[in-house]
Amino acid sequence: MEIYRDINNIPTHSATVLTIGSFDGIHRGHQEIINRTVNMAKGKQIKSIVVTFDPHPRHILKNSNSKLPIILDLENKLSMLKNLGVDATLVVKFTSEFSKISPEIFLEKVIRDNFHPQDLIIGYDHHFGFKRKGTPLFVKKFGENFGINVEIVDGVSDEGSVISSTRIREQIRDGYVRRANFELGWVYGFNAQVVRGAGRGQDLSFPTANFIPLDSNQLLPKEGVYFTRGRVIGKQLYGMCNLGIRPTFDEGEFVMEVHFFDFHNINLYSQNIRIEFLERIRDEIKFESRIDLINQLNEDKTQCLMLESKYY
Q: Which of 1, 47, 218, 245 has its CA at a distance of 20 to 30 angstroms from the CA of residue 201?
């Protein structure tokens, strides 16, 4: 997949099928739009193009204290777009200056003049341009004026509600990662770096790797214990992860740590890993004794190992 990052230096295309969107989670609704774009382009034997924005517009248009936690970082977004069969992606650097560009200018000077789309595929709820005036109906009228077919794609519904990034964020924040994964169409997770911990897990016979997300604005699931899948030094490993303040030790500091099954005596400090949250097991608990904690950890591991066969 080709990647363009400069709107002033885009190779000219003679004909394309193109879609525009933040695609901040590439959830099942987004995938419907992208698959439609890719399949239509293949049918016409022309290139499929995705135009997306980084950072998320709300990181620029809102004050810094209300930044929208990200579901998917740019690196993984581009990887998913490639896997979906997209031929090329334009990553528009979203700035305060760019936010003032009218939708007319954006469509004419960036989209039409560079990509010459035969078809524009757009989600029913996507807005862009100055004051979000670039509505689906606006794009439809633009297409009529310039001989471009515009297709507006409806949302994908589940349990009577339209799947959305907002709803998925709420599910992850509330710990409903299994439901969120279903609506995403992929397992929620993020890339992280292993950092030095207190070493208590080793003393409990459950050695853990403490980690922090590579992106400080990463959306985090609710505190608790999770059945997880990790990618570590080229291997896929299952394990269990705790997010929280470890109340048994009365420290109060928020910590993220993972214990991988069947992975021993390897120092992961400073390594980059990926953590994916498969299912939430339980809330954090304050235990009365070290033995009570170890017994619960063994129960957690047994439960996770029983779940593991579902994900092979």
A: 218
Range of the domain at 194: 187-311
Q: Is 33 within the bounds of a domain?
A: yes
Regarding pTM above 0.85, the answer is yes
Mean pLDDT of 4-21: 96
Pairing relation of β-strands 235-244 and 255-260? antiparallel
* CATH label of the domain that carries residue 241: 2.40.30.30
- Verify that 26 and 103 share a domain, yes or no: yes
Write the CB contacts of 27 (distance below 8 Å, at least 6 apart in sequence). Answer: 163, 164, 165, 168, 183, 184, 185
Domain count, the chain: 2
What's the rounded Cα separation, in Å, for the pair 285 and 295?
A: 12
- Position 172 in a domain: no
Q: At residue 63, does pLDDT exceed 70?
A: no
Strand partners of residue 147: none
C-alpha span between 194 and 190 (Å, rounded): 13
Asked whether residue 62 carries a pLDDT value surpassing 90, the answer given is: no
Which tokens is 44 given?
């016409």
Q: Looking at this protein, which amino acid is placed at residue 105?
A: I
Long-range contacts of 289-293 (CB under 8 A, 24+ apart): 290/204, 293/204, 293/248
My answer on whether 19 and 126 are in the same domain is yes
| pLDDT on residue 265 | 67
Tell me the pLDDT tens digit for each residue of 249-305. 767 789 999 999 987 767 888 899 999 999 999 999 988 888 999 999 999 999 999
Q: Would residue 27 count as lying in a domain?
A: yes
